[in-house]
């Protein structure tokens, strides 16, 4: 129970990697606040599962691109749960667009949800971090190193996120707040459910460990980065891709 007595906020906690992270941090002893956008049913299910297994979790609705909503949600979380030790920013979206199809709306949506929202949640949480410090974990992608056709804007939004991770780590180190990112390759979630099977097979064949990631594969790494075991790691992006890159 490496996070016993700690408080963790997980954005995107209703589905996919975020749901796995919420469950894993709760298993490690943290009280978990799940932030979701619209999928109240899924978020409630994750919190109920955690409760059934003896953990503590609650759900909070907020669009992470809306700084006022995020600020209100985090204030409510801190009031109910106490000072925050872990902020896992997992919420994100992927919109494919080839170079000729990129629109201003698509660019804004990718950068607002994948990049700007990390600024809003970090800012909203700073005043509520425990005095002893804590851990912020962002989620990038292996595509930063090898963007495929149609992924340039998404990959760029995550590349910017990796630079934010490094910059924030530099600024927050004095408060003993570590800031890191975890960068998965294709992971089996709703986000990747529409990828055609031949492409998935190709990706699997290029992955030395011979399979694609499940959300738990990523959640376990997030839990490590959140824990005291990772106390000497900050400003880094951990490529978590089964050796794909
Ligand atoms: N899956 C992959 O292959 C993969 C690979 C590399 C990196 N990633 C990154 O990992 C993260 C999680 O991906 P996933 O595959 O687990 O995605 P997912 O299954 O599609 O789940 C997305 C989550 O983000 C939440 N969300 C989206 N927009 C939001 C907003 N504006 N405000 C608040 N919450 C919002 C959703 O909430 P609702 O349920 O309420 O909609 C949901 O919980 C993302 O940052 C993604 O870019 C994924």
TrEMBL record:
Domain named Ketoreductase: residues: 6-218
Keyword rRNA-binding among UniProt keywords: no
SUPFAM superfamilies hit by this protein: NAD(P)-binding Rossmann-fold domains
Keywords tagged on the record: Oxidoreductase
EC number(s) reported in the record: 1.1.1.47
MF terms (GO), sorted A to Z: glucose 1-dehydrogenase [NAD(P)+] activity
Keyword Metal-binding: no
Similarity comment text for this entry: Belongs to the short-chain dehydrogenases/reductases (SDR) family.
Name this protein carries in UniProt: Glucose 1-dehydrogenase
């Amino acid at each position: 129970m490496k996070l016993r007595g700690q408080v963790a906020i997980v954005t995107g906690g209703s589905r996919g990697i975020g749901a796995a992270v919420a469950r894993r941090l709760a298993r490690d002893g943290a009280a978990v606040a799940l932030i979701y956008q619209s999928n109240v049913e899924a978020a409630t299910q994750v919190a109920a599962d955690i409760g059934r297994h003896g953990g503590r979790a609650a759900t909070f609705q907020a669009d992470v691109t809306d700084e006022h909503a995020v600020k209100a949600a985090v204030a409510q979380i801190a009031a109910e749960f106490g000072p925050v030790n872990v902020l896992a920013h997992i919420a994100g979206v992927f919109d494919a667009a080839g170079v000729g199809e990129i629109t201003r709306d698509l660019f804004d949506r990718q950068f607002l949800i994948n990049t700007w929202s990390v600024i809003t949640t970090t800012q909203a949480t700073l005043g509520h971090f425990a005095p002893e410090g804590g851990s912020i974990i962002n989620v990038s992608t292996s595509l930063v190193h090898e963007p495929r056709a149609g992924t340039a804007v998404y990959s760029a939004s995550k590349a910017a996120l990796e630079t934010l991770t490094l910059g924030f780590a530099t600024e927050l180190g004095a408060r003993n707040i570590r800031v890191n990112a975890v960068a998965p390759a294709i992971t089996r979630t709703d986000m990747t459910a529409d990828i055609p099977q031949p492409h998935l097979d190709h990706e699997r064949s290029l992955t030395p460990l011979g399979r694609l990631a499940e959300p738990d594969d990523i959640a376990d790494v997030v839990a490590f980065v959140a824990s005291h075991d990772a106390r000497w790691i900050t400003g880094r992006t951990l490529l978590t891709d089964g050796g794909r890159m």
